[in-house]
Amino acid sequence: MVSGCGICGANLEDIDHIFRRCPVAVTLWNSLLHSDHLPEFYSLPIKAWLLANLSSSRTFATADPHWDLFFGSILWGLWPHRNDMIFNPHLVLRDSVLQRASRVRHACLAALAPAHGTLHQDRRLPREQVVWCRPKLVGIS
């Protein structure tokens, strides 16, 4: 059983490595964050790092008002991306992590829009309101 990173060969493949230290993740984060924020971004303990980025919309990214959503979407995209790189190396990856994350972020914002009283002008998203109805209990006493 191999315990190291299947992408870069690092000895330890833990959550911190997968989402923050692996060259795939480092390249991604460095492309998104202002260089002034990088030292703190990389030095926080993993739990504080996750909480800081998921609980605030403007902790590290100065240009994105929904950084918390985008950050979570990036983490969500990094996992299948790296699994494809390791377990399906012959597969041509159709979308980048950022493309996937952007789509997830957009879907989250669209889903949150009715709750926040804002409307998105994207007509490609369905506008139908769905209401859940309790199923009828038949034959249960």
Task: Describe the fold and architecture.
This protein is mainly α. The chain has one domain. The chain is built from six helices and no strands. Helix 1 (15-21) crosses helix 2 and helix 5 (67-87) runs antiparallel to helix 6. The radius of gyration is 19 Å and the shape is globular. The relative contact order is 0.09.
Query: Residue-averaged pLDDT, rounded?
Result: 80
Largest sheet: none
Oligomeric state of shown chains: single chain
Total number of strands: 0
* Relative helix content: 40-55%
Protein name: Reverse transcriptase zinc-binding domain-containing protein
Organism: Hibiscus sabdariffa
Gist?
The protein contains 6 helices and no strands. It is an all-alpha fold and 141 residues long. This is Reverse transcriptase zinc-binding domain-containing protein.
Key attributes of the depicted protein:
141 residues, mainly alpha, Reverse transcriptase zinc-binding domain-containing protein
Helix-strand layout with pairing:
Elements (H helix, E strand, L loop, with lengths): L14 H7 L1 H10 L5 H6 L2 H9 L12 H21 L9 H20 L25
